[in-house]
## 1
Amino acid sequence: MVIKETEPWLLWPDTTSFGINTGKISEVFEGVSDFTLAMRLKILSIEPIKRTVFAKLPNYCGIDVESNNTPLLILKLIKAKEEVSRYISCNYEIDTEFNWLIYRYSISKRIVEVLVNDIIVIEYKLEDDEELTSGVEPHIIFGAGNFPKNGFNLNYCSYDIDYLMISKSYKQLLEIIKIKNERSLDNTIVGLYDFEKHTEYKVYDLSENCNFIHKII
């Protein structure tokens, strides 16, 4: 399924799933447990220079691709009781084919990582006085962002996506591929999408948690 420029999609099940969703997906990515977000996608946009693959709001965390399709990790952290932002870039260029893009966190190691396929291209170790932030009614936008550093520009990004998995565990690529190929589930998976089961405005959650993804209208 293609997420088109100017037509982002939204994961905000507490608001859009009418109370039938489970798994507390809104708590993922806030440092209370390990987590993994794995996407299989092909980036289509070449402009603007910064394009947002996904953004977790309102606390401004996510992944952009910069010029030459190099990933940029945005983190908002609490450091010594103050909010700080980290913008962590790399030189790894994502090609124009389908690739795995993985965002994951190990609570024991206190490390946030971004992988392209099985290569760690960004690794950030939280300092002793740093913690991941939590947000009020957190939600994720796919294909657009709203980061302060970019002047709250939307930074639309068009890409073809055929798989998305969100888990409350730290997963390796081989585990993720096995889940995809065997359509297997474990109790850490709170959102699973193959983008085949969808309507014009909704992508169904194969994890049975009813954490649907909706087109922003």
Note: The chain has a mean pLDDT of 90.
## 2
Amino acid sequence: MATTVITGRDLSLTIDSKNYGDQCTSATLKVDLERNAYETIDGKVFFALDTTATLSITMLADWGASVGAGVSICEALWSAASSAPNTALAYTFTAASGAVFTGSVYPSFPDASGTGKDAQSVSFVLQGTAKPTLTIS
């Protein structure tokens, strides 16, 4: 079977029904499985306890910019984290290969920074509400 090369440009990212792939420079969906290990008289056994997910994003800053009919993701996340930090936002993380991860994340405050002549970027980590759903099409 031939290898399919998937690059970061083959990904799309939608948060709260708005596509941010055109300004996202890096996105990582990380899912961790918490497990206990027990030593029994028959040997070691493992028991899965919980699953956590985080969505880490670095993107071009869009403070004050209008995105489509809505506000920038920086402002939307800031507003949501200020007024409704326990209300989850839906996301879809899609690869061109047909892998689609969907779930919900809690908003957090994006960083605000700049470096010399470089474009301003923001980074933030969004805590998932549960394990994401994977669909392969």
Note: The radius of gyration is 18 Å.
## 3
Amino acid sequence: MQKVVKNFVHKIIVSIFVPQNIKTQMKNDFYNKNWNYIFKFEDWIDDHKPKNKQNSDFWDEVNLEFEEVKAEFKNLLSSTEDITDKDGNKLTPINLYNLIDQYKIRIEKLLLIFNVRLYKTLNKNKKSGVKYIVMRAFWIDHFGKKVRWFSRNIGPENKVLVNGNIPLHQLEEIEKHILYLMWDQYCIEYLGADGETGIDLDGNRVIVDF
């Protein structure tokens, strides 16, 4: 009985005199400050530098976003403070793990814009048998997987091709169009533009101009 009383008194004393931040600390003996970490931000970001683009309002906007997200990510990784969500709830280690993963995915999406690549595919009309050229580009889903996302139907193969190739000026125009689609998608996902969207003729989600 005396042992139970002592333990009870000890808990009361601890609850009164031990600071809250010390009470809630979790010590992990497995951690070693001398580890050679698998993920190093500086090395990772050096391997993910965007290609240089000509100056324009579009590229200035994309560049600014890239630098801001990069700085946010770096600050997150170096922070020793408690990290909370927008409602003030402290993030658990698994929350932080997922948050870091989502920052990496976000930067990868921006890099797809900087390093845009188009892929030519053919869609055959079942009724007419006519083959249509569709240019596509990849995006990254929320799990970090590359998926075919953007498309632009540019017309029947026999009318589009010149000497077996798509004319350069047309390719440049298509690339510009898909770049704007990619930026729209990014703004929808991260910059609060999801309430101002529509679907274009090729099935792409776009920001609607009012």
Note: The chain has two domains: 2-30+45-114, 119-207.
